[in-house]
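Table S2 (continued). Query chain:
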Amino acid sequence: MLAIAFRFLAGRYHANPWGRHVNEADVEWPPAPWRLCRALISTWHYKLDAAEYPAGRLESLIDRLSGQPPVYRLPPAVHAHTRHYMPQWKGSTSLVFDAFARVAPDQELVMAWPALELEPEPASLLDALLHNLGYLGRAESWVEARRLSEDEIPADFDCRPDEMALDEETGEIRGEAVRLLAPRPAADYVQWRDQRVRDEVAALRGKKKKQLEATLPPSLSDALRIDTSDLQKAGWSRPPAGEFVSYLRPVDCLRPGLAAASPRVPAATTARFLLTAKPLPRIEDAVRVGEAFRAAVMGRARKLFEDENAIPPELSGHGLGEGNRHGHAFYLPEDADGDGRIDHLLVHAPGGLSPAAQRVLARLSVVRGRGGVEWRVLLEACGRRDDFAAHSHQAGVSRVWQSVTPYLRPWHLKKRPAEQEQLLAFLRKECRLRGLPEPVGVECLPAIRVRGKPRRAIHFHRFRNKRKLTQPDTRGAFLRLHFAEPVPGPLALGFGCHYGLGAFTALEEV
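Corresponding output:
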């Protein structure tokens, strides 16, 4: 077996799939066999001595590599992109997407040909080409490549042509279908090319005939050298020396967060998302963002589960049974850097996130608010609550917790006793119902500081976007809670606490 390992030194693999526009922000993953063969030919032209490595040896190597489709072992990766303005020749700019697969620089992608064995001469040429290969895909995709020895070849491969991707245990074919461009086998190309030239090209005249003849050279390696723009000018929708091979890759190979959100982590209770937008939403609008966040999760769940009853109850909050009112998900916006803007979103289900719920969260990418506002979200990780304590103050552990959004009473006031006493009684009751220790001290704060400015509860949006919803408290208050023992977060209490109201952040002892 021949196997090649690639490490992407900059942590990125940039490559646009054939036939896709760059602004579709798609990424070719794994690297197509066509791309590798062209990269090897380019490396031979620019970096190898033709006297030491004759062109005939290169042609023979390319013919061998094209004889069968390779299989892959894929490292964990993330489909990501950046947006920037590209200068145009008229002096204007154009917004473009730069998509890439984010790969850890120490992780290797393995590409193997199971039935291919190279003799010493072509193997030495391949080693020289791989040693001098500077990038694969776009020039930003710095790569280090090497041929693996027999004892280094992995035992299993997770991306195969669909006819080879058979689950040995179940007999089913599983995976996500993706088309990769590969060179035709050399003998097939020569036969197809000769017939095409004889039956179609020979009957043409003038410029069209010259263009087609230039794109149909007699050897496969020469056909791989043709520039893409020349192929397009000649009217080819795909390279004549290429063919699409259907592969099955792991469904979530570009979403590594699902690795933590799989059945291997049954104790997962919390997921954290990165939120991106220009501008980011204000923390004062936390409940609006929280409601939109839940709506996006439920929308994604309905697409995955046709039966409404199959939606994980910890996400919807329905069907959890008696005594489990707050075991379902809290959708909590978070201002992690303290600039007054929501930059992260927490999903916390004290009763646990099932594998089905984790699959839903892993597929969430967009949250849409009212008025056509759209926020992009990226799942950072899914795991236990304490996995996030170092990065999120809302997921920390502390004896002192302070409001970051207004706390609204979940029950109506009575005529007696005084409002302050009833507020303390409500807090103690809530904590008992949640299984939390009762606070030993409660401070009512007139305001909190947001972006360095004092903000009162009235500055925050405090109403759910749900008709005919009874709301016992419309004013809200900011609190600082003191407990006798450390209490783990996330902590959210009161009316609307599952949507971002009544959220608290951990403080050091004051």
